[in-house]
Amino acid sequence: MIEFTTEEMAAAMGAEIVDRGSGGVPKRAEIDSRKVTGGELFFGLTGGQSDGGLHAAGAISSGAWGVVVSPERAGDLAGSGVFVFASEDPLFSLQTLARAWRRKLEATVIGITGSVGKTSVKDITRALLPGEVHASAENFNTEIGLPLTILESPAGTETLVLEMAMRGAGQIAELAAIAEPDIGVITNVGPVHVELLGSIEAVAAAKAELIEGMKSDGVMIVPFEAGHLEPHLEGLPGLIRFGGDGEVRVLELEVLAGATKARIETLQGEQVFEFPFAEPHNLLNAQAAIGAGVAAGFTPAEMASRADGIAFSRFRNEHLDLGDRGLIINDCYNANPVSMRAALEYLAQIDRPRKLAVLGLMAELGPDEVRFHEEIGSLARELEIEVIGVGDLARSYDPDLKAGNPEEAARLLGERLGPETVALVKGSRAAGLERVTELVAAGEGSAA
């Protein structure tokens, strides 16, 4: 519930109350009228050729508590029996209401960004931290998704874990201005979004906007080897490094049967963690999450007791055991040179004789995109992994087999599955490789 008075909401949103409903408070914010089930505050966002205000009447008929629309739409909705707010910019109103609710919650806010691993770090952080924790849903990490996440946070939320996406300069700064994080996590900086920003240095500067957006007494969690991010860390008072020889680091490690047992050193002493995953990159993600937890005041023992509850968002390193048809690692949510390398190296370590990788394109890599794909193809051959390339750009992997689309890739993969086979499915979202796993899991494309 968004527990403000109507007047407080209007003031926070910079909006005018055009009509009043029956009272109470909205249970959450919504921008899609099709998802209104009753009690929501619907925001009719405008932009480009679209005007969400056109769907406000539909939201009202579905039971919306109230609507926030442009002034020209608001007058038409008067007398509808719900609260009607007129705003010159409904998106700005959504964001400012979210910031006001964040402040009223008085929760510790952890903002997480990075070229690779931010969703996994968010998932691990949410699992490890005790108390009332609310976190971003799968991809609620944009200028729209982040405020919606905040406004979903129930009263009594103690820790708010927010993922922050970056598509261009200024976006992280915009998100930080809404969330006002107490703790910031930058997982890493890699050649992602170079097509949009021009260089890795520019990507690092965009990620570093989180540093500028922190509270004055905030704490940043960054990799021990920060690379292009390093110039932005000079003189930073609150800093915890993870991995390598950082303040949060692995002292002893044992990986068995898909699980990891690690003795980890922190600023609050050593602690043994037992994680339900075996991937080295997720162990690094866990160290980032532990750093955030320590900064938030939780003990390593408290976090270790919750480690068995870690679960990852869809399409991220999902292990699908098909019995005598083999094992599929479904990691098709996104891909870039850093995450692709980590996934292939993990695949190579799995104890099955035959290893396949269904690889789609890695998007937004700029003018060096062909070289990045060639390097990943060379790594796959070095690791003795058979590659099925999907789509035109995937030809730069120099794959063993080529598929024009996910359906063809599913057929090729299905024909090669068997009890001794493990297959990785990975590519950027534009490749649509989740379709490969869906088809193969359903038994389509299997060898006769």
Mind explaining what this structure looks like?
The mean pLDDT is 93. It is built from 16 helices and 22 strands. Helix 5 (118-128) packs across helix 11. The N and C termini lie far apart (54 Å). Strand 6, helix 3 and strand 7 (83-86) form a beta-alpha-beta unit. The strands form five sheets. It has a six-stranded parallel beta sheet, with helices on both faces. By secondary structure, the protein is α/β, with parallel strands linked by helices. The chain folds into three domains: 6-90, MurE/MurF, N-terminal domain (Udp-n-acetylmuramoylalanyl-d-glutamate--2,6- Diaminopimelate Ligase, Chain: A, domain 1, 3-Layer(aba) Sandwich), CATH 3.40.1390; 106-309, UDP-N-acetylmuramoyl-L-alanine:D-glutamate ligase (3-Layer(aba) Sandwich), CATH 3.40.1190.10; 318-441, Mur ligase, C-terminal domain (Protein-Tyrosine Phosphatase, Chain A, Alpha-Beta Complex), CATH 3.90.190. It is 33% helix and 23% strand.
How many β strands by DSSP?
Answer: 22
Low-confidence stretches: none
Spatial sequence of strands, sheet with the most strands:
9-10-8-11-12-13
* Second rung of CATH, namely the architecture of the largest domain: 3-Layer(aba) Sandwich
Based on CA atoms alone, the radius of gyration comes out at 23 Å
Shape: globular
CATH class of the largest domain: Alpha Beta
CATH topology of the largest domain: UDP-N-acetylmuramoyl-L-alanine:D-glutamate ligase
Query: Helix tally?
Result: 16
The H-level CATH homologous superfamily of the largest domain, spelled out, is: Mur-like, catalytic domain
Alpha-beta classification: alpha/beta
Number of domains: 3
- Our measurement of the CA-to-CA distance between the termini, rounded to an integer number of angstroms, reads 54 Å
Largest sheet: 6 strands, parallel
Mean pLDDT: 93
The proportion of residues forming helix, as a percent range, comes to 25-40%
How much β-strand is present in the residues? 15-25%
Oligomer: single chain
